[in-house]
């Protein structure tokens, strides 16, 4: 494997578990020095083949903390080539009763934090001719009942992606990945039992849910010279997309007849 990231520095927010950890491992394998952050350190460092990501405690919802973290990284490494805004998520919440504080926190994590990280890293990315990859979600492009504010935040992140690509080009490329249904350590909390997950997987055109490695490969591609003319893109990594419910209803009703 050619190491197109050799000598380069990448930031991956939320890179201690799940999709983020898969992205970190893929970039380490590609030769990047990788830095990640969180409010608490992982039980074990994230790494592969003897290479480990750096970890710093940082609440990315705090713009001042983000700016200090990014500047410390730039001083330590002398450059920043790639930012992956991966940290995000939301518990389910009834939109009719969700508190203002809850909604603000979800917006902070999923929309404002990527903006703060990107702003702080921008001068370093500009100097390096680097790029940003924003990890969005299918919730950004289809209804997201029970996680409405999360869907709205991710939709905002997609819009932010296209706007920054226009504003910061040609020095900095900015792209987004529309992430589909993914197997993670907490899949049961999101999708239910193993049987339910099997049914969901079977409903997708590619016959399985996504894996962290699928998203990591997409990140590596968008950060690579192979994507040199790709900016403002919304790369859908969702296995072909979710089957419309009405088709199942039609199928079931037809079977009755």
From TrEMBL:
GO molecular function: oxidoreductase activity, acting on the CH-OH group of donors, NAD or NADP as acceptor
Catalytic activity: 2,5-dichlorocyclohexa-2,5-dien-1,4-diol + NAD(+) = 2,5-dichlorohydroquinone + NADH + H(+)
Start and end residues of each Ketoreductase domain: 8-185
Superkingdom of origin: Bacteria
GO process annotations (BP): fatty acid elongation
Family to which this protein belongs: Belongs to the short-chain dehydrogenases/reductases (SDR) family.
Full protein name: Ketoreductase domain-containing protein
């Amino acid at each position: 494997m050619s190491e197109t990231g050799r000598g380069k520095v990448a930031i991956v927010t939320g890179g201690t578990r799940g999709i983020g950890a898969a992205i970190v491992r893929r970039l380490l394998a590609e030769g990047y020095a990788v830095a990640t952050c969180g409010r608490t350190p992982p039980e074990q460092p994230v790494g592969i083949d003897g290479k480990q990501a750096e970890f710093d405690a940082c609440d990315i919802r705090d713009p001042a903390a983000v700016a200090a973290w990014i500047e410390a990284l730039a001083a330590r490494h002398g450059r920043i080539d790639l930012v992956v805004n991966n940290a995000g998520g939301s518990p389910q919440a009834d939109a009719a009763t969700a508190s203002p504080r809850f909604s603000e926190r979800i917006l902070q994590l999923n929309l404002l934090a990527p903006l703060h990280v990107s702003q702080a890293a921008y001068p370093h990315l500009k100097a390096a001719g680097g790029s940003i990859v924003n990890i969005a979600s299918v919730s950004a492009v289809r209804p997201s009942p029970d996680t409405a504010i999360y869907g709205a935040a991710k939709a905002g992140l997609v819009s932010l992606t296209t706007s920054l690509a226009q504003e910061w080009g040609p020095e900095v490329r900015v792209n987004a990945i529309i992430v589909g249904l993914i197997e993670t350590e907490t899949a049961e909390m999101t999708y239910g039992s193993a049987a339910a997950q099997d049914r969901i997987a079977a409903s997708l055109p590619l016959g399985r849910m996504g894996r962290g490695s699928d998203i990591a490969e997409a990140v590596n591609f968008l950060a690579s010279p192979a994507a040199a003319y790709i900016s403002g893109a919304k790369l859908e990594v969702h296995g072909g997309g979710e089957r419309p419910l009405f088709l199942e209803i039609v199928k079931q009703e037809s079977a009755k007849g």
